Amino acid sequence: MKTRNKSLSYLFLVIGIAFIFNCNFVTGNSLNFSNSNTTVKDTDGNVYQTVTIGNQTWMVENLRTTHYNDGTAIPQVTDSLAWLTASSDAYCWYNNSTSDGTVYGALYNSYVVNNTVHQLSPKGWHVPSAAEWDTLITYLGGITSAATPLKESGTTHWSTPNSGTNSSGFTALPGGVRHGFPTLYVPGQFQYLNQDGGWWTSTTVSGEQTSYWMFSNSISLQTINESLNCGSSVRCIMNSKSTGVINLTSSDVTVYPNPVKDNLSVSVPDPQVQTSIQIFNLSGTEVYSSFVTNSITTVDVSGFTSGIYFIKIISPVSGVVNRTIVVTK
Prior knowledge:
The protein is α+β, with helices and mostly antiparallel strands. It has three domains: 1-30; 33-238, no CATH class; 246-327, Immunoglobulin-like. It is built from six helices and 21 strands. The protein has helices spanning 2-26, 80-85, 98-104, 110-114, 130-139, 147-150, and strands at 33-41, 47-53, 56-59, 91-92, 107-108, 125-126, 177-178, 190-191, 196-205, 208-215, 221-226, 237-238, 241-242, 245-246, 254-256, 263-267, 276-281, 286-291, 296-300, 307-315, 319-327. The strands form eight sheets. It has a four-stranded antiparallel β-sheet with strand order 18-17-20-21, with no helix packed on it. Strands 1-2-3 form a three-stranded antiparallel β-sheet, with no helix packed on it. The longest helix has 25 residues, at 2-26. The protein is globular and about 65 Å long. It starts with a helix and ends with a strand.
């Protein structure tokens, strides 16, 4: 009887240790990260390494493209007052220095991130939502400690003291900020290079944009709702996959030109079987319908009457993306 009790006790001990180890694995304490051995290229030709962390694949560098993924140029704004008062998309380099941009990436205002006509991320990628950042942070142990495995180690780019170990391979760099608040800081001022890094999400809250921040002297992250005119970094995340099929998100679809007169281009990366485009007029009448067979579909709208039309891009796997266009004559 005593021998049996000892055996049972040993068995429970083994199970307990296995359970604890498994819990640590799930929460990210056991490092389950891998270089994805893939790269992604933006419209400017910049090539970015990637890393898979849990079920997400991220760029390992801050975005530095100066064009949207359809080739449209993003306006560069160097003047401080013009940056502060901008009501449309703009980017800059920290201190207007392209050499800083090569290392730390570009700083974008939120109008760039929120542009629904032109998409910032390379096709098949998107600016992550706050929920996607939260998934990353939770996997790495939570917001109070996840900055440590996310930040690049050493003090080549981060000021001392730097708690970063970069054990995740994310290689977060402190690209600083260009202030967009008219009263709290010097308008349009650059600040905190090498000390702080802030990354936009695609999530808006009460007229502001959510961003995530890391600091050289902290192991935690901070969520901040920024002014739309703030200049922050961007990290892109690959569109999620289900059974090898890339999910379609709003940030992937580009419809141009808009307004349009003759030929409308609808860009859908890696279209799935039975993905379709439907166009409706203001009365709700369908005026066009076709299945998508190529990444760019050209629609002849020269026979449409002038006015507003609604486009639905329908994926059998990942739902519906809606767009509005204006047809002119």
